[in-house]
Amino acid sequence: MTTVATTSAVRRPSPRIAVLRAEARLYLREFGTLFWVLGFPPLLLVILGSIPSFRRVDDGLGVRLIDLYVPVLVMVGQIVVGLQAMPPIITGYRERGILRRMSVTPVRPSALLSAQMGLHGATGLLSALICLTIGRLAFHVQLPRQLAGYLLALLLTAAAALALGALVSARAKTARLATAFGMAVFFPSLFSAGLWLPVQSMPHTLRQIVVLLPFGAASRALDQAAAGQWPAWSHLGVLAGWTVVVSMTAARWFRWE
């Protein structure tokens, strides 16, 4: 009897793994969230790629617009994850007292946060893979020629988006406020990423300002890696700097209840 009980205890998953499994089951039921992350960027890519002018070489830019928009829509998935999907969930847990109750159990609230960031980060990267696949198969967009640099820039982009989402979660007291705060940052982030106007075609002064923002820098870094160059360290440094500063600020302001 003792041996069986001991073996059962040894095989029991750690609290962190148990939380990850539980959160994964709940996350997969969020069909609305999954659509916006996994469905919206690829759908927008298909719509843009269906416009004939986007499939022709632009005289001013020297490339097709669809080639520029694939990296942009790769970023859109990360932005949606960080600013629209994650903050209402975490803030909702705090609003309902779930984080407070977890703080007095062996399961630490940090396990919940890491599970949420891991799940949302993985979903954002899956969205990026779908966009790259559709771009290649449907519109003959070249896959990134500097794969290592592209992957590094993408991981830093995802980290920056999650850091911004953590900051929104730290400041918002309710899920509704989290949605509102996230929306306030969401549209400027899309603009700086080049959704309405590619960063490459922005006026010089505006472009110099945009590349100092996380998703403007990400746009240039991903574009350079896609073309076969190693991303400029200045762009990678902007991404890393924003991630570190925003993460530290979010950690300082975050409250469990």
TrEMBL record:
InterPro entries: ABC-2_transporter, ABC2_TM, ABC2_TM_bact-type. The chain crosses the membrane at residues 26-48, 68-90, 111-135, 147-170, 177-197, 232-254. Keywords: Membrane, Transmembrane, Transmembrane helix. Residues 32-257 form the ABC transmembrane type-2 domain. It comes from the Bacteria. The keyword Transmembrane applies. This is ABC transporter permease. The lineage of its organism: Bacteria, Bacillati, Actinomycetota, Actinomycetes, Propionibacteriales.
